[in-house]
Amino acid sequence: MCTGKCSKCIGITLLPLAACAIVSNILLYFPNGQVLQLSEITDLVWFFHGILGAGILVILPAFMMLGAGGAGCCANRCGMLLSVVLSVLGFAGGAYCAVISSLGLIGGPLCDTGDGEYLYPFRNDTLEDNYLFNQTTWSICKEPENIILWNITLFSILLAIGVIEAILCFIQVVNGLAGFVCGTCMRRRKTNISGM
Questions:
Q1: pTM over 0.85
Q2: Which residues contact 157 (CB under 8 A, 6 or more apart)?
């Protein structure tokens, strides 16, 4: 596969991933569809890791990859070099999303433990006592309902998306450098053996 086609395939793959990351991050603001006060939302959601990191910072290189992979003025060495620069930005966005999502999974959600006060009941857990591996501790959180399952699901989705996006953007960095150094695909011209 030539570097231009590979670039286009990666760009097409990144667009739905970025859209899913944005939607997943927005859903973290509304646990179980409830509208909470700003002080009742888990702090790591405010880092915009799905909206900014795995969303906007990945959409920009995805569009450039589509342009660099298409036929036209962008399907040249300059377009491939620009896709490399933007892919580094996309890699950083995907890695940022993966790191924040990991921290969100490890730290657990902000929830009401029954006394009307919102706190992080799992922040000081060790790995052996972590709530992720001990489902019986989930009953500590009374409000919002099913907040632990909500956070685990959405932070896990964002973690997977961030890792996949970072890998794809890294592949595009290598692909784009190859396209810049060696040139994009050149069509082989059929020549007539008889010279006509």
A1: yes
A2: 20, 24
